[in-house]
Design a protein that fits this description.
Number of helices: 13
Radius of gyration: 23 Å
CATH topology of the largest domain: FAD/NAD(P)-binding domain
CATH superfamily of the largest domain: FAD/NAD(P)-binding domain
Shape: globular
Strand content: 15-25%
Structural class: alpha/beta
Number of domains: 2
Largest sheet: 8 strands, mixed
Number of strands: 22
Distance between the termini: 25 Å
Length: 497
């Protein structure tokens, strides 16, 4: 095996592979270090739904990503637009104005060009009909600024990126954990100490890109930073994201940055395993709650299910289950909205109950029957039925006189059979990380770049606070992966000149 590369990339998810591809465009030799064995490769990317948020003006922009779209398909979709200003405003709105404006501007302005770049490398995309569109007359209308996903979802994105890496001659070492950054006497990061199947080894490089994820799979760090109870949550993805990259960066003087006490979480099936399942992937999540109600084991509501489109609420709602008794919640629907439920509600492994009466449903789910029936009756009495129901827009069909309210999509729950789905909190990734500059270079507390060190992906702090717009994690990984990889490749090449 080679012991020197122009660029070493630590990690093998979407951000890392985007960095590796970009670095290889600029220099001769690139190595990807994957802590997981080959059969478990791909990081958390493998477990995502593969939907990507990006700015676009019209259907012509979409067709640059899906050039084989047929005329029939073109004529049956209404994609609208999602401008850079809208993307930026969404970032600011859901993060309560805390997102780093420089990073946010890079993200929104480079989101479409980066998607086009990956498409030019052979990564294929399709319209996301199943989760982001409703049929309205003779048109499919997309909502919430999301409409494109990678072919094959997260698994497909990961596999396609690995294929591109192979075609470009990028080396990948599996079951190889980066343990320490190597610096020369001038402080330049000049390689990585790794622990692989044959023991410890030093691999030198012109530059290093850290893209090894957050600390969501580290129970001790979750408890330390996120707070009590977080050590017990289910991990949506891989067991390998234990904060190694963050710790290595901090050890060489990187500035910690971002919202360490917050994270991306989702409603996750109550009986899902402790870590992600490679077969089920993202389908343990449950995201159709805007069309029903969420209650706890006492039968009480605790959220405004219709506050906004799912894309903008599911992360903070995912964390909210931990505030409830036993850390549980239940998504409740009646027969009228059954056709609106996402595919994830129909998998064999789902924890659910079905009944012809509310009392029987409560008993089957171990919810307090009296509390549950009281909640449903009070909710039904509060629904403003004179406002038309429309799941494709924020329809303003709300409740009056109850707390919490339901601000949109308030539909009577009165048509059996009734169904309920038991969920808990599943953590996806953490928001705290290290600081980078606008070239993707890791910086110190003195705002000086650490020579030879770059970062991308979930390790980058400063983008997401409290919440995030759905699909922006994948786009951020791509954008900052390409940015850091390009910079690392250019700087490594300059060292050789």
């Amino acid at each position: 095996m080679e012991s020197h590369y122009d660029v070493i990339v630590v990690g093998a998810g979407n951000a890392a592979l985007s960095a590796a591809i970009a670095a290889r465009e600029k220099t001769d030799s690139v190595l990807v270090l994957e802590k997981a064995p080959e059969y478990f490769r791909g990081g958390n990317t493998y477990f995502t739904g593969g939907i990507i948020r990006f700015a676009f003006e019209d259907l012509d922009d979409i067709r640059t990503l899906i050039p084989d779209m047929s005329e029939t398909e073109v004529n049956q979709v209404e994609v609208g637009s999602y401008t850079e200003n809208q993307f930026y405003d969404d970032m600011m709105r859901v993060t309560e104005g805390l997102t780093d404006p420089d990073l946010a501007q890079i993200l929104v302005s480079q989101s479409l060009p980066t998607m086009q770049w990956l498409q030019s490398k052979g990564v294929r995309f399709v319209l996301s009909y199943g989760r982001q569109a409703f049929k309205d007359g003779d048109k499919y209308r997309f909502w919430g600024g999301l409409l494109v996903e990678a072919v094959g979802a997260g698994k497909g994105l990961s596999d396609q990126q690995f294929d591109v890496c192979a075609e470009m001659g990028i080396d990948v070492r599996y079951s190889t954990q980066a343990t320490k950054l190597i610096q020369n006497q001038k402080g330049h990061v000049s390689g990585v100490t790794v622990l692989g199947p044959d023991g410890f080894e030093d691999i030198t490089a012109g530059s290093v890109v850290l893209a090894a994820g957050g600390f969501e799979a580290n129970a001790e760090m979750r408890s330390r930073y996120l707070g009590p109870g977080w050590e017990n949550v289910k991990v949506r993805g891989i067991p390998y994201n234990t904060g190694d990259g963050i710790k290595m960066a901090l050890d060489v003087g990187a500035q910690s940055h971002g919202h360490y006490s917050s994270c991306h979480a989702v409603a996750w099936d109550m009986n899902a395993p402790a870590f992600g399942d490679r077969t089920i992937t993202e389908l343990y999540q449950k995201h159709s709650y805007p069309f029903g109600l969420i209650v706890n084991i006492n039968g009480e509501r605790f959220l405004d299910e219709g506050e906004d489109f799912r894309n903008y609420t599911y992360v903070k709602f995912g964390r909210a289950y931990l505030t409830q008794p036993q850390g549980l919640g239940f998504h409740i629907f009646d027969e009228k909205v059954k056709h609106l439920l996402r595919d994830e509600y129909h998998i064999e492994q789902v924890t659910m109950a079905k009944a012809d009466t509310l009392e029987e449903l409560a008993e089957r789910l171990d919810i307090d029957p009296a509390g549950f029936v009281k909640t449903i009756e009070e909710y039904n009495a509060a629904v403003q039925t004179d406002i038309p129901y429309n799941p494709t827009i924020k329809d303003g069909r709300n409740t009056v006189g109850i707390t919490p309210p339901k601000s949109n999509w308030a539909e009577l729950i009165d048509t059996p059979p009734y169904t309920g789905y038991a969920v808990t909190c599943g953590i996806s990734f953490t928001f705290g990380g290290i600081k980078i500059d606008t070239r993707g270079r890791v910086v110190t507390n003195g705002q000086e770049p650490i020579p030879g060190l770059y970062a991308a992906g979930e390790m980058v702090g400063g983008l997401f606070y409290h919440n995030y717009p759905g699909g922006s994690g994948l786009s951020a990984g791509m954008v900052f992966g390409k940015l850091s990889g390009t910079s690392a490749g250019e700087d490594a090449k300059a060292l050789k000149a």
